[in-house]
Input
Amino acid sequence: MPIQYYIALASALFCIGVVGVLTRRNAIIVFMCIELMLNAVNLLLVAFSKMHYAKAAAAGAVTTAGTEGQLFVFFIMVVAAAEVSVGLAIIVMMYRNVHSVDVNFLNRLKN
Amino acid sequence: MGTTQILFWFLTALALLGAIMVLVSKNPVHSVLWLIVVFFAISGHYILLNAQFLAIVNLIVYAGAIMVLFLFVIMLMNLNAETEPQKSIWMKFFGVATGGLLLSFFISFIVSSIDLKNKTAQLKEGDVGLIKNLGKVLFSDYVIPFEIASILFLSAMVGAVVIGKKD
Output
């Protein structure tokens, strides 16, 4: 598959995530849209990894080109899992204090 | 058009449909379920690219653990379509316009770029994504980041407990 198709797909998913962050007020949905953006980047990294691997494999012998890209995706997933556990704990605490997950309530932090 | 192409377009359409439905759904539980559909479609793309390790990790970590956590929190708070806060129509319009402009910028870049001409992502073959190769590199060159990730998990666990406990 031409690499342009993968870049277009990842861009579309990323932009849908951006629109979600901008248009929704539910903190959990905003958080899910951030996960969507992370996944779009992951998909792009894997596609680029396979692009470099194919190029190196066509040039010659056994190669490990492209391995770094896939390991990077693995580490992004690790960080996302840690981020979700802390983020959801913060949202639960916010819900316990203001009885809402509306992000507009967060501007009361300034007082 | 071979099977691979058909699968590619099917998974692409599924991912985009799921992502749009995440935004459009009024009920947060439906949003979570559509996001799981997106993650399955992305895992299908990984399998198509022969990145089998990442496909399985994506299913276990994202579709399994993270989305169950989201679903659990939503059900704990008893959120539904009636309690869903709504932004004004103008905020929605400007949000969609911003995202559309960003997407059109990306697409115009992709179409006009010379560097991307005749580059292809290898499908179905290539052993770079197999767990044997990734494990060798992960436990030799990247062993220190791997260990730091375990410390990150420990601190995230402690942080989640400290934030979440009743005081």
Remarks:
- Chain B has a mean pLDDT of 87.
- The first helix of chain B runs from residue 3 to 24.
- Chain B touches chain A through 81 residues (CB under 8 Å).
